Amino acid sequence: MQTTRFPVRTFRACLPLILKSTPSRPRKLTVSATMGPARTAVEEVDKGAFVRTAAGFRNQVAPGTQFEPEAGRYHLYISYACPWACRALAALHLKGLQDVIGVSVTHPTWQRTRPDSPDDKHTGWAFVSPDDPPLTSSTSHGSFSCADCVPDTVNGARFVRDLYDKAHDTTGKYSVPVLWDKKNNTIVNNESSDILRMFNSSFNKLAQNPGLDLYPEPLRSKIDEVNEWVYNAINNGVYRCGFATQQEPYEQAFKELFAALDRCEEMLGRSRYLVGSSLTEADVRLFMTLIRFDHVYVVYFKTNRNFIHEFPNLKGYVQDLYQIPGIAASVNIEHIKKHYFTSHPPLNTYAIIPVGGEHWWEQPHSRAAQFPDAQQPWDK
Asked: Quick one: pLDDT band at residue 318, thresholds 50, 70, 90?
């Protein structure tokens, strides 16, 4: 059992995360011409099947490298809507790096990233201040608040795309998370799994919770094995369902998704976490898909065989993880719903957001009592 001690504090999902050392007046960002053909995930389709493009920046923050772990040097750009970005945000909170790494939060609704260029139709993540006027969808439907957004206080960027242009990107896909190096003025990494692991280990000398290890050496082979099939069938599987443009690849993804969810349900009937009695990165990665499932994916991505709350073990598991100090700070269900239902006109032309949905993950659970051999420091 892990012996990590967490400081007593309340984590709030909407807390602005700006470093004390961040300059009050951001530098003006100079935007160059696009280095690659701009596109979004919706366009990553081959023969009717969604095929995700790999991340383009894979440098590591580590002692003795170009990117040394230093307080105040790095900035994380995220969207509360994005499950990949929220992996990194959850790790930042779990490890207690709030005073080490600054955070900016985009508006959930994609905007035209080159609004003055009639030929450039790309839409993507935009930076606003929480008191800015509401935005519409890229096709001028709806009115969506800027609440809980945190502007770019480092580069003064209007769009995440501007950061990629400044870093001389050649992929043309402007995703979050982005880990930015203020010293070298560039993107370090935009792969969520890399950033999660860097936050887990590279900043331990600066972290409030250095004893928490989400990727412990004895469990790494098991974690890697679980991550592989969970990613393919569940994390990416919901997108393979939702962004498919032909029936056959959709049905194949649907079949694999629910087979994997059934597998998780069975595993979580035998242990508190995916890899036994300890919380690991495998749990953080799975959670980010599950928390979005009932409110978004069932309807929007047509993953409608079951809701997550209809799986007894998965329901308790989501409740268990959400109530860990730090995890809730990465969940903003309003941003989640706004993004998916307002950012992809081909899937939801008029940007209508469903009203219903109970916040069942906030309810009490019995996972700690069910698995007494897996007691954690945060158990009440």
From this structure: very high
The long-range contacts involving 302-310, CB below 8 angstroms and separated by at least 24 positions, are 302/241, 302/242, 302/250, 302/254, 303/238, 303/241, 303/242, 303/254, 303/257, 303/258, 305/254, 305/258, 306/258, 306/261, 308/261, 309/358, 309/360
The angle subtended at Cα 320 by Cα 318 and Cα 326, nearest 5°, is 95
DSSP 39: B
Task: Dihedral sign for Cα 331, 97, 11, 321, please.
Answer: positive
Determine phi and psi for 368, rounding to 5 degrees: -65, -40
pTM tops 0.85, yes or no: yes
Catalytic residue annotation: 82, 239
DSSP 168-228: T--S-B--S-EEEETTTTEEEE--HHHHHHHHHHTTTTT-S-TT--SS-GGGHHHHHHHHH
